[in-house]
């Protein structure tokens, strides 16, 4: 009599063997998190999937950090000049010597006068090595005009040595130092200008969309008038009205006001459209029936409902402010020396002979390009994240 072999037991699910939750349960858990998440959590979950926007956010944070601490980051003072080093070429950092890893250093420069053109020619001096280091002593400065110190993030160990990692300009000033100092002015104009545009656009656009009627018509005709004027001639005309005898701080404030006066119309149109669609919503009607004041309805109920869109719009508006300041300063109608901004630095590149002799004078344009691209990518990421339920 044949013995019956028992049937093999059914294999346990892989998820039970490994202790992991089944796919359906994980999907249900993820959906439950989405249903109870706040608007900001949904924005963050979607934003962090945008890798280019995340990288751009890191770049912008580093740029603004440099703008905040320009004095200790820059190796020298922005106006420190050295005429014997006029148009000195960039000096390359070296980390190896005779096949061994050593402290970073640069080779010194020797200069000769070309007999035909009577111009300086710089050549590398392999006999002179200038050691570089971090947190070195250098020129004294006042951080934010208050704290005195002489520690710089990097520079030559010998404080009497001068090193030009990105070359020198027509009077021997360090281009890298001036680019770092220009970061504060150019980036702060973007922030301050957009903040003022935000105030104008949010206030006038909100009033126009919420109350409507004659107020709406008046504000919309004002917006159409401002937008109908060609931008560049308007910039040039308003900037040319600023007296050149004004101190640099007053010119800086005036340029910021000009840029804000021109840039608020786009945001006002967006805010007006949102208010027109929101003022008939149920939660707005419920707030009115509850006796809530008009200001509280606007600032407590309506504006928070599209705050994410406002943030995205502001981020995308900052590059326009930076480019506008750069263009005005480049044309000589904006900020003027001794103020240091990226546009002022690019004035050195107006002379084709100077660019042919010292092409590193165009490096400030690279700083503008990188910053503007990073801000645009960041704005795109925020705009996509503002609609977390979209695809």
Describe the structure.
- There is one protein chain.
- It contains 15 helices and four strands.
- Helix 10 packs antiparallel against helix 11.
- The chain folds into two domains: about 80 residues, no CATH class; about 210 residues, MetI-like fold (Orthogonal Bundle), CATH 1.10.3720.10.
- With about 400 residues, the protein is an alpha+beta fold.
- Strands 1-2-3-4 form a four-stranded antiparallel sheet.
- About 0% of the residues have low confidence.
> What percent of the residues sit in helical stretches (DSSP H or I)?
55-70%
Which percent band covers the strand fraction? 5-15%
The largest sheet has its strands arranged as 1-2-3-4
Question: How would you sum up the global shape?
Answer: globular
The helix tally amounts to: 15
Structural class: alpha+beta
**N- and C-termini, Cα separation:** 67 Å
Radius of gyration: 29 Å
Q: For this structure, what is the CATH class of the largest domain?
A: Mainly Alpha
The tally of beta strands, per DSSP, is: 4
Q: Per CATH, what is the topology of the largest domain?
A: MetI-like fold
Number of domains: 2
Query: What pattern of helices and strands is seen along the backbone?
Result: HHHHHEEEEHHHHHHHHHH
- Contiguous runs where pLDDT drops below 50 for at least 5 residues: 7-12
Question: What's the architecture of the largest domain in CATH terms?
Answer: Orthogonal Bundle
What do we call the CATH homologous superfamily of the largest domain?
A: MetI-like
Largest sheet: 4 strands, antiparallel
């Amino acid at each position: 009599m044949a013995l019956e072999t028992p049937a093999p037991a059914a294999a346990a699910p892989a998820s039970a063997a490994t202790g992991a939750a089944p796919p359906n349960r994980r999907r249900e858990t993820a959906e439950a998190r989405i249903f109870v998440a706040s608007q900001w959590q949904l924005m963050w979950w979607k934003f962090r999937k945008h890798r280019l926007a995340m990288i751009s956010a890191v770049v912008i944070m580093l740029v603004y950090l440099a703008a905040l601490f320009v004095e200790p980051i820059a190796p020298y003072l922005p106006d420190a000049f050295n005429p014997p080093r006029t148009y000195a070429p960039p000096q390359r950092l070296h980390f190896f010597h005779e096949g061994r890893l050593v402290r970073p250093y640069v080779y010194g420069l020797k200069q000769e006068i070309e007999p035909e053109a009577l111009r300086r020619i710089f050549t590398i001096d392999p006999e002179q090595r200038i050691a570089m280091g971090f947190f070195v002593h250098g020129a004294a400065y006042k951080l934010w005009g208050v704290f005195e110190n002489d520690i710089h993030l990097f520079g030559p160990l010998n404080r009497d040595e001068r090193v030009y990692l990105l070359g020198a300009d027509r009077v021997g000033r360090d281009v890298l130092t001036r680019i770092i100092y220009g970061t504060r002015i150019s980036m702060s104009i973007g922030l301050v200008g957009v903040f003022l545009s935000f105030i104008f656009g949010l206030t006038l656009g909100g009033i126009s969309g919420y109350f409507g009627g004659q107020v709406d018509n008046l504000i919309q005709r004002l917006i159409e008038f401002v937008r109908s004027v060609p931008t560049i001639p308007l910039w040039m005309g308003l900037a040319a009205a600023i007296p050149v005898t004004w101190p640099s701080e007053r010119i800086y404030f005036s340029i910021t006001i000009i840029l804000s006066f021109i840039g608020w119309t786009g945001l006002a149109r967006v805010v007006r459209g949102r208010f027109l669609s929101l003022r008939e919503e149920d939660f707005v009607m419920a707030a009115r029936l509850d006796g809530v004041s008009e200001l509280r309805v606007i600032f407590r109920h309506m504006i928070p409902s599209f705050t994410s869109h406002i943030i995205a719009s502001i981020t995308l508006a900052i590059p326009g402010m930076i480019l506008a300041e750069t263009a005005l300063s480049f044309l000589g109608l904006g900020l003027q020396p001794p103020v240091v901004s990226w546009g002022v630095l690019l004035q050195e590149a107006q002379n084709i002979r100077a660019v042919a002799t010292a092409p590193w004078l165009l490096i400030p344009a690279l700083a503008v390009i990188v910053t503007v691209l990073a801000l645009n990518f960041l704005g795109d990421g925020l705009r996509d994240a503002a609609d977390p339920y979209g695809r």
